[in-house]
């Protein structure tokens, strides 16, 4: 097993005890909740007449079901209205901090916690959402959990978990123009597989990762779960500390220097022992697009859709299923695939830097006829900052719709949905069958800049030709 990695240090620091089952009872430093996975958990507390043990360690927002075009209450969808009312009631009763729509701080849970400094190195973080791995970008150990575990954290502030192995994933070199963190993580998942990380925590390192901004690192860690890893993280460094300094919940004054010293001590050192190490070269990574029905079914934008015989035998049956569902043929180029809807947003790519990169492509161009394109900022704060920078004007001049924050078409638990066999170019994280709202809808995952390029072209194109 791994030794002296950041994962080991944080795990040990939060261990309450080892349970008779062999699992660890782990203290959870920060618990994030939203409207979808928390109602049943609170109901379970009431049934047992239990309080929330540490309400100050839980933070709530609304993101999954909230409309991004019309927020008039009550919502048009009665179920969505019922869910937000339940969250409002639970937060009032249990005195939980709640960032509701209009507060100026509402947004996707994995966007708002980092931007307010709630997410910090050395933390254990849990949320009833699979993409909680996002917070590992700060050197935290962050897990997505199920509803019964949400109940456990509310009641005890702990979880029973089995310790993971640690795989270090290094990426070295400089990324080429038009290649982003989204391309890096899609490339990694393509090479290691969607089940390659089962039983592992992924530690990302190497010169490419060290050169990334915090928002790029969040994109990288966000999709660790798509590669099968329970969590992914980057060791905290000067980039981390610069991002956090001065944020609302970050340590202040003399506490700041003390915190930084502790955070630095947590990083995996040269004496760290890993269960596995994998190395990639940045020069080998191109703008990447998924062609199938898992995030691992992807290719460089300049490649052709692989034939079954080009794939490992274990992947061939799924590939055949993907060809049939997607309506794509082995040997065809991915470039030129027509798109109907272009979505920029999600907890993967709805941050300010994502919108900036997409705006570079959209500026001075127009969305292609018959293409619906829209931009959904990841939080109210991101929206405000983007509007101050003039990004809204750029997108709207190009024919994009500018929306309010939410998860939107990433998972379509709201009005933003594909219709019929539409094909979506999406900056989100999952391309499963029916993921974006239509049982037959098709999703091509790519970077925000690539989505913008597809929107103005009406088809998949190589963004490098437009930059």
What is the CATH fold-level name of the largest domain?
Answer: Aconitase, domain 3
CATH class of the largest domain: Alpha Beta
**Coarse structural class:** alpha/beta
List unreliable stretches of 5+ residues.
none
Strand ordering within the main sheet: 5-4-3-6-7
**Count of domains:** 3
Shape label = globular
Largest sheet: 5 strands, parallel
**The CATH fourth-level homologous superfamily of the largest domain:** Aconitase, domain 3
Determine the mean pLDDT: 98
Write down the Rg: 21 Å
CATH architecture verdict of the largest domain: 2-Layer Sandwich
Q: Ends: how far apart?
A: 45 Å
- State the helicity in percent bands: 25-40%
Count the E strands. 19
Strand content: 15-25%
Count the helices. How many?
16
Q: If you had to describe this structure to a student in words, what would you say it looks like?
A:
The chain is of the alpha/beta class. The protein has three domains: 12-161, Aconitase, domain 3; 165-284, Aconitase, Domain 2; 289-465, 2-Layer Sandwich (Aconitase, domain 3), CATH 3.30.499. Helices cover 32% and strands 17% of the residues. It has a five-stranded parallel β-sheet. Strand 13 (288-290) and strand 14 form a beta hairpin. The chain is globular. It starts with 5 loop residues before the first helix and ends in a 10-residue tail after the last helix. The model has no long low-confidence stretch (mean pLDDT 98).
